[in-house]
Specification:
It is built from 22 helices and 18 strands. It has 736 residues and is an alpha/beta fold. Strands 8-7-16-15-14-9-13-12-10-11 form a ten-stranded mixed sheet. A four-stranded antiparallel sheet has the order 3-4-6-5. α12 packs parallel to α15. InterPro entries: FtsK_dom (IPR002543), P-loop_NTPase (IPR027417). This is Cell division protein FtsK.
């Protein structure tokens, strides 16, 4: 109650007590009161009134204060409750609780599955649904075998328990006997008393029991926490929090790869046939259920009718998101049939480091007959590249790792002191410079002279192939062996790298001859200890003779654009059979290749070791220096004493001068005259009249005129150019 305003009430009330103080809320005017009205009130003195009003004011102030505080607190609570951090923390707490519950549920399901053969049951149902009789029979048989195995285990159980009990009792008896023996020994040898040994052992046992008793209570107290933690971990792997509980962290959470998660990831691709199939409540048919395989999980799935594995492989990145993995961690490939999906999913982060360090970086040598280190399969198994009696072709889009792979192979070969290395790089590419001291021949550059040198060298190599053939006959062996290779009889292993091979093969002047020689060398060389490694981008029939690709039993395919290049590298029919480098993603899969011929498998996916050639991180030079030290004892670098072959050159104008008489000759008839004049000079062999005209115009400035349908090559013009060239040479000699 508050009294605030005053109104005179009656004269009799006296001056002191005659005031009536109305009771009303502060700040409100009191209604006018007539004399006749009865007013409820209390008579108080002014002093009392002042006292009371001051009390009231204080109370009001206090009330106001409380009200304000309440508003502030209310606002604060609202701010905190609706703040992003609180929401996230709240979600995290609920999510953790839910995950733990899901973990317990998962244990339950797994126990139920294990006791009822759930995996087999589901697959049988799936096989029935898809009408796959073969799979049905297979899974039914597998279930029967599993039931039988379990039955046998149950029968064995009493025997096992009895055996365990016997072992325990026996061990106990053995320990007692040992203590007694030690006691007796101590007693009789005079080193102590029998009883001391026994009491010592008893004290030790007592101590152990006391320790267990002390640790028992904390252990029991902590046990529920451990169980909850384990359930939480299980829930993280198997459960899935509702979307509204997802926090930013979830995106990075690990996900166990099993039949359920694979099916969910496939479903998320929204491929109509898969969606329709799963909508019927049918499980996907797993020909191989998801199981740990190396550093990942492997599964084979028969896809619903109408979906090819290739379709999934093409959407690898989308598929990977459903499995909480990077695209490069998920490897869907075509299985035995177009509709069978073979998928391998790496453990999270397992492939992040690539193949890891090259194993021979700082020590070790190689026997090329056993293979050279090449990389690691996705499953994490180190892989050796077999080299002897083989040739290798490497290909892929630019920048995906071809040169690096060739370096790794050649570095391995360099570390065998019996091996000879020849490297040809028909391009301005310094990637192989560090190998130079270890090579018997090294040619680098895209100029015509360099290509001519490569041709001369291959001609020489061709002769060596023949020579080695004769040696094999002399030693009566079908192919070079380690023993013979080490004997210095001219049958040592010889590794020839032709980098950017298409540049040499498609060279307008020397390409044809280079291609022909290559075919012969790869065909005949392998039994004779010669391994050719050709590296190219996308082999086509023009850039790589089919006889070369056919004779390369090692194929290394980095990301390629189409099935033609794929099959040229991995063998005829590889694409159709699901061995596809087309499914490698350029950039993402840099350094990863599909290889054929390395293991018993038709193909393997390999992360290739990487050897840097950067100036500030040159890893090749130390290897080459080590390789040179290894061969020091044997003398020189194998093959280095071989003379550099002389390059045969011919002058077209001089040859024309010789073959042309006085009259002009039709250009189409001239190549035959040239070929007759210099039968060993291969560039004249396939020369056409048109090519001759182009050559004369481009290289000698002689334009053959067209008269009707004929192009007469005028000997006078040819001889004029020859004369002016000779005088120009003379002038040049005089000035120098
Ligand atoms: N095995 C690997 N591991 C990691 N990174 C690699 C690997 N191979 C290649 N790379 C990376 O890719 C880059 C290009 O490699 P490389 O020069 O071997 O490609 P390329 O296919 O030969 O290209 P080009 O056709 O343009 O010569 C390298 O500099 C390196 O950064």
């Amino acid at each position: 109650m508050t009294t605030d305003d005053t109104t005179p009430q009656s004269a009799e009330a006296g001056e002191e007590l005659a005031r009536v103080h109305y009771l009303r809320p502060e700040g409100q005017d009191m209604p006018a009161v007539s004399d006749a009205e009865v007013v409820e009130g209390e008579l108080i003195s002014d002093e009392e009134y002042r006292y009371r009003t001051s009390q009231k004011a204080q109370a009001i102030a206090r009330y106001k204060g409380y009200a304000h505080d309440a508003v502030v607190v209310g606002r604060a609570v609202k701010t905190v409750a609706t703040h992003q951090h609180t929401k996230t923390a709240g979600k995290a707490v609920i999510s953790a609780g839910l995950t733990t519950v899901q973990g317990v549920e998962s244990w339950g399901k797994r126990a139920w599955d294990a006791s009822t053969m759930g995996v087999y049951r589901r697959q049988i149902k799936a096989a029935e649904a898809s009408g796959d009789r073969e799979a049905l029979a297979d899974w039914t048989e597998r279930r029967e075998q599993a039931v039988e195995r379990r039955h046998k285990r149950m029968l064995d159980l009493p025997g096992l328990a009895w055996g365990t009990a016997k072992v325990l009792v026996g061990s106990l008896a053995g320990c007692v006997a040992l203590v007694l023996l030690v006691g007796l020994f101590v007693q009789f040898s005079g080193t102590g008393a029998f009883i001391d040994v026994v009491t010592g052992v008893l004290s030790a046992i007592r101590w152990v029991f006391t320790a267990i008793a002390i640790a028992w209570t904390p252990f029991l107290m902590a046990l529920p926490a451990f169980v909850l933690l384990a359930a939480y971990r299980e829930g993280r792997k198997r459960g899935q929090a509702p979307a509204w509980l997802a926090t930013a962290r979830e995106a990075d959470a690990d996900m166990a790869i099993d039949e359920t998660t694979i099916a969910k990831a496939l479903e998320a691709l929204r491929i109509p046939q898969i969606s329709a199939y799963l909508k019927q409540g049918l499980p996907l048919q797993f020909l191989t259920p998801a199981r740990i395989d190396g550093r990942g999980t492997h599964a084979v799935i028969r896809l619903p009718a109408g979906v090819t594995a290739e379709k999934i492989a093409r959407r690898r990145a989308d598929f990977a998101t459903g499995l909480h993995r990077l695209a490069k961690e998920v490897w869907p490939t075509t299985g035995a049939e177009a509709g069978i999906l073979d998928v391998w999913v790496a453990d999270k982060g397992a492939l992040a480091e690539g193949a890891g360090e090259y194993p021979l970086l700082s020590e070790g040598a190689v026997d090329v007959f056993k293979g050279v280190p090449f990389g690691k399969t996705l499953r994490g198994t180190p892989l050796l590249a077999p080299l002897m009696e083989r040739n290798t072709i490497t290909g892929g889009m630019p920048g995906q790792g071809k040169s690096s792979a060739a370096r790794v192979l050649m570095a391995g070969a360099a570390l065998d002191p019996t091996a000879e290395l020849r490297i040809y790089v028909p391009d301005a590419n310094f990637d192989f410079e560090a190998f130079k001291p270890r090579c018997s021949r090294y040619i680098m550059g895209a100029e015509d002279e360099r290509i001519a040198e490569i041709l001369a060298d291959l001609t020489d190599l061709h002769a060596e192939v023949q020579r080695r053939g004769e040696l094999l006959i002399r030693y009566e062996i079908p192919s070079v062996t380690r023993e013979l290779a080490s004997k210095n009889v001219g049958l040592h292993p010889l590794f020839v790298l032709l980098e950017e091979a298409h540049v040499a093969i498609q060279h307008p002047k020397y390409g044809g001859e280079i291609a022909k020689l290559l075919v012969d060398i790869v065909r005949l060389g392998r039994k004779r200890g010669i391994h050719v490694l050709v590296s190219t981008q996308a082999p086509t029939k023009d850039s790589m003779p089919r006889d070369v690709t056919r004779n390369c039993s090692n194929g290394i395919a980095f990301a390629v654009g189409d099935h033609v290049a794929n099959d040229a590298l991995l063998g005829q029919g590889a694409y159709a059979a699901g061995h596809r480098a087309t499914e490698l993603i350029p950039g993402t899969d840099k350094g990863t290749a599909v290889v054929k011929g390395f293991t018993g498998e038709r193909s393997d996916i390999v992360q290739v070791y990487f050897l840097d050639v950067a100036k500030d991180h040159d890893q090749i030079t130390p290897i080459i220096e080590r390789a040179l030290r290894l061969i020091e004892e044997r003398g020189a670098v194998p093959g280095a004493d071989r003379p550099v072959p002389e390059i045969e050159t011919r002058d077209l104008l001089e040859d024309l001068d010789a073959v042309l008489g006085k009259q002009p000759v039709n250009a189409a008839d001239v190549p035959a005259l040239l070929a007759q004049y210099a039968p060993d000079w291969t560039p004249y062999q396939g020369l056409s009249g048109k090519a001759l005209r182009e050559l004369l115009a481009a290289e000698h400035g002689i334009k053959v005129p067209s008269t009707g349908n004929r192009y007469p090559v005028d000997p006078v013009t040819v001889r004029e150019v020859l004369t002016s060239r000779a005088t120009a040479d003379l002038d040049e000699d005089e000035t120098t």
